[in-house]
Amino acid sequence: MKEESSKIVLKVINAAEGPLETKEVEERVNKPVKNVKRTKLFYRLNNLRAEGLIKARFVDPRKGVWIWWKKNAFKVLCGLIL
């Protein structure tokens, strides 16, 4: 089950046009897989980030908002994200 849910999360992130908040990832993952707990989803997202398969950034410490995007979503030129 762990591998299956990680594959679905990776597929959702890679299919997205741009960055997604955790809430948006949760909504899209809950379509093929019902009753995914937010804590388990966050765990899977962080594991994928640690493996270097996706990228993420913590954007709002007051609300605990993370955004997630596919590995090669942005071009880097001279250390600047374009």
Account of the protein in words:
It is a single chain. The strands form 2 sheets. Strands 1-3-2 form a 3-stranded antiparallel beta sheet. Strands 4-5 form a two-stranded antiparallel ribbon. The protein has helices spanning 2-15, 22-29, 38-50, and strands at residues 20-21, 54-60, 65-70, 76-77, 80-81. The relative contact order is 0.19. The chain has a single domain (2-81), classed as Orthogonal Bundle (Arc Repressor Mutant, subunit A). Helix 1 packs across helix 3. The N and C termini lie far apart (37 Å). The model has no long low-confidence stretch (mean pLDDT 85). The chain has 82 residues and is an alpha+beta fold. The chain is globular.
Terminal Cα span: 37 Å
Task: Give the domain tally.
Answer: 1
Query: Biggest sheet, strands in spatial order?
Result: 1-3-2
- Overall, the morphology is globular
Helicity level? 40-55%
The CATH class designation is Mainly Alpha
Q: What structural class should be given to the helix and strand makeup?
A: alpha+beta
CATH H level: which superfamily? Winged helix-like DNA-binding domain superfamily/Winged helix DNA-binding domain
CATH topology: Arc Repressor Mutant, subunit A
CATH architecture heading: Orthogonal Bundle
Tally of individual helices: 3
Instruction: Average the pLDDT over all residues and give the rounded result.
Output: 85
β-strand number: 5
Low-pLDDT stretches are: none
